[in-house]
Amino acid sequence: MPELPEVETVMRGMQIALQDRAIVQTIIRRHDLRWRIPADFSQQVTGSTIQSFYRRGKYILIRLSCGQSIILHLGMSGRVLLDSPQTPQAHEHVVFVTDDGKRCAYIDPRRFGMMDLTPTHAENTYRAFAKMGPEPLGNTFSPQTLLDACKGRRTPIKPFLLDQHVVAGLGNIYVCEALFRASIAPTMPACDLRPRAAGVLVRAIRSVLLEAIAAGGSSLKDYARPEGGLGYFQHAWQVYGKKGQPCPKCPGTPKCAGVQHMTQAGRTTFFCPQHQKNG
């Protein structure tokens, strides 16, 4: 599934190509995505100008001159194709045609993504956002807000950080990488996080996300950038997907058995038990 850096990359690509363009045609080939696309979706958005873009967690918001915002979630396999050819692509469910003749297509083989509308002035009350946690790259995410969220929570820190009510947009890859950078064991109860470690963790989360965004995200099975290119951050992964490989932080350490993996809350966690002891 595309995580925050991949979604941010897709949004920026769409912004470059589509901002200030008018939607002259909206083609919906299937309404039955994860949530059903509203029946009047085409009528509401066609004729509107795309004014701005915004990301909330793993969702892309497209703000229109009609006072509505399109909400897009890529799901497991969704992707956006800019300059889509006239011939419909396989699994092409929604197409926006703009006043400069460009076609922007939403393609989703597994149909776990979604597209919806909400009034722009009421975005914060939309069902997916009402209880969502702070943005990890925003000013409201700090060591203190993280410590406050951790109070009384014995959930292991790795699945705790994946809870979108705690912090928005974090996914499995980048939480594994951030915990490794912060030298924090993924099994540590969240309530055991100490102030100094919280500061290190917040900085690690931000740095790994910003580096991944700068690299265009990671190239995953179903992810490509909107113009068709690939991300490169997977080449910077230190533990994710590295089971059995030497830990980059403990080279030559006799006690280090290398990168290990385990399952937490149904997700695979990659970590180094020797390096990740603190909290």
Question: Short description, anyone?
Answer:
By secondary structure, the chain is of the alpha+beta class. 23% of the residues lie in helices and 20% in strands. It has a four-stranded antiparallel sheet.
Helix/strand layout:
Blueprint: H1 4-18, E1 23-28, H2 41-45, E2 50-56, E3 59-64, E4 68-73, E5 79-81, E6 92-98, E7 103-107, E8 114-119, H3 143-150, H4 157-162, H5 172-181, H6 195-214, E9 260-264, E10 267-271
Antiparallel strand pairs: 1-6, 2-3, 3-4, 4-8, 5-7, 6-7, 9-10
Average of per-residue pLDDT values: 91
> What percent strand?
15-25%
- Give the low-confidence spans: none
First-to-last CA distance: 28 Å
| Alpha-carbon Rg, integer | 20 Å
- Would you count the extended β strands for me? 10
Question: What count of helical segments does DSSP give?
Answer: 6
Q: For the report, how would you describe the main beta sheet?
A: 4 strands, antiparallel
Determine the structural class based on helices, strands and strand pairing: alpha+beta
Give the spatial strand order of the biggest sheet.
1-6-7-5
The assembly state of the depicted protein chains is: single chain
| Portion in helices | 10-25%
H-E string: HEHEEEEEEEHHHHEE
Shape category: elongated
Binding site for DNA: 91, 110, 153
Domain Formamidopyrimidine-DNA glycosylase catalytic: 2-113
EC number: 3.2.2.23, 4.2.99.18
Pfam families: Fapy_DNA_glyco, H2TH
